[in-house]
Amino acid sequence: MEKKGVSLQSRFMAELSRANFPMMVGFALCQVWLSLCFFAPQLFPENSSVSVYEISLVACVVSLVPALASPKASEAWLERPWSVRAVALCASVGTLAIPFSAGSTGLDGALQVFAGLLTGIASGWLFVGWYQAFCKLGDLIGFVLGVVANNLFMYVLTAVAYLPEVSPWIMVAVACALPLLSALLLNRRPETADFVGEPTLPPRRSQPRRVLALLCASIFFVSFVDEFMRNYYLEGTDLAFYSGSFNLVLLVAKVACSTVLVVIIADRSRKMSLVYRISFLLTMAAVLLMPYGGHCPDVMYGIASFGAFLFKIMIMILAFNFCQRYRTSPLLVYALTRITFSLDLLLGFGGFNVYRMLAPAVPDLLGLISVALGLLVVAIYSFVFTDRSYAPSFVAADGPAPSGETVEERCDRLVRVGSLSRRESDVLRLVAKGRSAPRICEELHLAMNTVNTHTSHIYQKLKIHSRQELLDLLENMAPEEERPSVGGRS
């Protein structure tokens, strides 16, 4: 066992050395900023500007709609350094306005709207910028460890925030500086042109479209449950929870868990299903014990937050692998998931407020809600995460491809099986590398109509109908002699 433990530690350190450390830190700072931004009013007892949170969520959703309508232009805009700096400035100014927005006067209301709009825009675009950067770089390990680093930074900052010697305004200044530092690190990300994603959603009724729909459904419902439980268990004491001793225990557990997770991801192990089961059990325990957890809310929410931590890791892996596998624009996928996440947070926050109003009139309401949320969690974990359509999105994390061939070797086999011409072979290899049609035109010095014709011939000869099916074929190729139905000259 000791030898095995040493092996696990050495493999973790080896994978950690491959992750982009500045990007990991920058992503963590972005997450810490958002938490401090929303919970900043808790540092000022007289501040009751909770409306900033709701306005910010709505602003986040609305601001990301252009990313869905015009992903290519949005992607180009977000990759400009000045755009990232502008988004970070919105985050900083909006955060600074929050402590001044307490009260019920017209000026206070205007400040709340102002702060909500700026922080909402930043919480959408700055996060999507980080998601896109990690996905294009192919750094899944750094992406996941950024979540762990966020938990570490959050504990340290909140512990300092509650020291009597520390003024709340110091924490506000820190919160204002964090998005600027995060943007600085994002603008220094390594440049890469290896990943090219299609700026369109997968075709309707296709497997990739089904996977994306299931991904959004799982984010929506599970995050809704977590947001409801956060409001129920903590009731505005989030910063006190993050700085507490029980959260320190959870932090140690998360760091230990991340060591195993990194090795699972790096080894492409099928033990990822264990993460899913643990997350399910923790979430179910926190949901079903809501009627009895009022005496120890920190412990109960700690259980829920650990389940949510594992759930977030799974979602990140799924979305990351979806972009890599189907060569879909990361900006498009992550804008869609970010919109979904913001909507369910808004719904969870509103749902808790409705419960609080109705609870005095309906004595058994909490028990009914607990059962309903439990059934919802069972449905999502049982039918969504175990759906067969999800398997391709877990391939990169769960297991190696059916054979040990390289992409070039698989292309060679498809060329032989489909009897492709030399030019069709060239087009096939570029498609396998994720090149878009305009990029193929540039590299092969061909007209767009010629590239489209070659692509159509490839589809006909391999008996497929889309780029996604071609990528599926490359990923899941059976031995050549087992594919007699594919190929033949047409």
Automatic annotation (TrEMBL):
One record GO biological process: regulation of DNA-templated transcription
Alphabetical list of SUPFAM superfamilies matching this protein: C-terminal effector domain of the bipartite response regulators
Transmembrane segments: 21-44, 50-70, 82-103, 109-128, 140-163, 169-187, 208-225, 245-267, 274-293, 299-319, 331-353, 365-384
Alphabetically ordered keywords of this record: DNA-binding, Membrane, Transcription, Transcription regulation, Transmembrane, Transmembrane helix
Regions annotated as coiled coil: none
Gene3D superfamilies in the cross-refs: Winged helix-like DNA-binding domain superfamily/Winged helix DNA-binding domain
Family matches, as CDD domains: LuxR_C_like (cd06170)
Entry-linked InterPro entries: Sig_transdc_resp-reg_C-effctor, Tscrpt_reg_LuxR_C, WH-like_DNA-bd_sf
SMART domains registered for this protein in UniProt: HTH_LUXR
Residue ranges constituting the HTH luxR-type domain according to the UniProt record: 413-478
Stored PANTHER family: DNA-BINDING TRANSCRIPTIONAL ACTIVATOR DEVR_DOSR
This protein's name: HTH luxR-type domain-containing protein
Protein's organism: Adlercreutzia muris
